[in-house]
């Protein structure tokens, strides 16, 4: 039993070291650890260090390592699209420090409390009034407002996300073109209402070089088009209704209803009082959808855009009435299409929805088919005041496109987060060095064993931040002031900015994950 437990702890330690090594080796523009992917049409290509995809490919066996990825990497990637490698490197280092430096559950508890206190201190001190002295350079502020009117600052923020992942043979000129295209699309898509998110769609086209990427105010959707719709397009000035539910038979539509309901649908019942058969429900569904088509025709609707499928009978009815059926618009395009039309999508098919369909009728400048290389797409052209943008991203092969599309989506996520907290910091590891210096300034004196434990875990936190800074471009150096100055100069020369909100979130996710996993370990040891 003891041997089995020892083997388990050893396996966990090895996988934690693997996560730490993979994260550190993949950081920065010169990350040495890269994945290789083979493709039948384009040969072998190199995958970049996209954190979520990288750790998914590791196939970790122990729950400890998998939990660390889920607690630190995945939420960071979902919230900001960037910074997952920093979170993984910090979390794995802290967990190893707590495990190796403690001899009892009480030791681990004390080290966890120390980490939580250090995180609270960083949250308080990282404010706009903080200044760092760089010697000859003079005092600089590591945190400043993002200037939304300065194209250079916005491009610098996007470049810090795209450039490190551009291990696809893209030149600096191509990366700069893609960054400027993304920034222009995002700024034009920022809505007047602060409650709405910018609608920036991304359509990929494999074949042309990256320099042919461009943005357009139309919503370009790469979706299959049936022959009926293809024959009826293009349309000029059409009225459109957008559905984010299916226009198909749904036999379970009324399962959640306690009785007949005119708002959410009508419960089908037989004359005997028993629930109706499948045939009766099918007939009711088709009649409801047929009435929906009649209402659309009475409102002079010229096209229907549906996120999901349209029943063949409904599709035929729409075509017979001169309404273009466009189905399977997909979740990533449907909100942009609705915003382009200037209306909210219809979310439920019911008697109540039939009565309110007039409020969901929107207007477009036109709908037409476009041919992008070997791909046919549907272009929804908005009226002049619509806040929608589509980035048509081009790349010479599928592998390059996969990497480029991933980094561009991450950049849009970072820009969206910048609307909530528009504070930026120089890139290239500068902020990590500032955080490290802040932590080191609070190291306790090793007066007793408890203080020594706290000091060791804080030194691990500060040392890992310095290592990360070196990987991001600052260079490894025993002189922290020299490292700070070097990372500042590198970030200034390369035009790199990082989002403070994303950086602090990576540290918070890492510390929280390390504390939670260490506390779980304590519980297991006590049992």
TrEMBL record:
- What is this protein identified as? TCP-1/cpn60 chaperonin
Q: What is the lineage of its organism?
A: Eukaryota, Viridiplantae, Chlorophyta, Chloropicophyceae, Chloropicales
Question: Which SUPFAM superfamilies does the UniProt record give?
Answer: GroEL apical domain-like, GroEL equatorial domain-like
Biological process GO terms, please?
chaperone-mediated protein complex assembly; cilium assembly; developmental process; protein folding
Q: Which Pfam families match?
A: Cpn60_TCP1
Query: Entry's Gene3D superfamilies?
Result: GroEL, GroEL-like equatorial domain, TCP-1-like chaperonin intermediate domain
What molecular functions are annotated in GO for this chain? Answer: ATP binding; unfolded protein binding
Q: Which PANTHER family match?
A: MOLECULAR CHAPERONE MKKS, SYNDROMES PUTATIVE CHAPERONIN-RELATED
Domain of life, per lineage: Eukaryota
The Gene Ontology CC terms held by the record are: cytoplasm; nucleus
